[in-house]
Structure formats: structure tokens, C-alpha cells
Amino acid sequence: MIPILTILILLACVILAFFILIQNPKGGGLTGSFGAMSSQVMGVKQSTDVMEKGTWTMIGIIGGLCIISVMFFQKPASMDKNGSSAQQKTSAPAPKK
């Protein structure tokens, strides 16, 4: 299950990077590249709303997937000073002759 969640987290990170990179820090972003066509089809305000909602949604998805992935981790077997596992130490000692 961990590999599936890892792939989903990486995919969400790539989509989040896409949303961040197509935004212009000065407010133009995607709407500035389409000019008048974008204001006729979607409107300038709606384009930035979609970008912002997509960014926050991806952040929420990544956070949720990270929290869910913690539930699937297993604790490693405890080790002693010599590096052997605790299960080997629980065996009974050999009888003395």
C-alpha cells in the first residue's frame, strides 16, 4: 500500500507544481497569456479562482495522503546491541551436561 500512496503523493506534487508555475506572481498568470479571449470565455477573475482553488486542493490532498500513509508503516523489530533481533534472544538456553 505504501508504494501506491507514494505514487499518488508524487503525482499530486507534480500537479501542484504545475498550478504554481502557471501562476504569475504579479497577478497576470494564465489570464495574461490569453488576452481578450480568456475574458470572453471564462472571465479574468474566474481563471485566478480556479488556480487558487486547485493549489489549495492539491495541498490538502498531499497533506491527507501523507497522514494516511503513516497508518500503513510497520514498526521494525527491536534490535539489541549486537544487531540481532529480540526474537532470537527469547529461546531457551541449552541444557548443561
Structure characterization notes:
The structure is a single chain. The protein has 97 residues and is mainly alpha-helical. The protein contains five helices and no strands. 65% of the residues lie in helices and 0% in strands. Helix 1 packs antiparallel against helix 4 (44-70). It is rod-shaped, with a radius of gyration of 26 Å.
Please report the number of helical segments. 5
Count of DSSP strands: 0
Strand content: under 5%
Rg estimate, integer Å? 26 Å
Tell me the series of helices and strands, N- to C-terminal.
Answer: HHHHH
User: What general outline do the C-alpha atoms trace?
Assistant: rod-shaped
Q: What value does the average pLDDT take? A: 76
Contiguous low-pLDDT stretches (5 residues minimum) are 36-40
Look at the helices and sheets and give the structural class.
mainly alpha
Question: For the terminal residues, how far apart are their CA atoms?
Answer: 51 Å
Helix content: 55-70%
Largest sheet, described in full?
A: none
What would you say about this model in short?
The protein contains five helices and no strands. It has helices spanning 2-21, 29-34, 36-41, 44-70, 86-89.
Write the topology of this structure.
Blueprint: H1 2-21, H2 29-34, H3 36-41, H4 44-70, H5 86-89
Helix pairs in contact: 1-4
Give a quick set of tags describing it.
single chain, about 100 residues, mainly alpha, about 65% helix
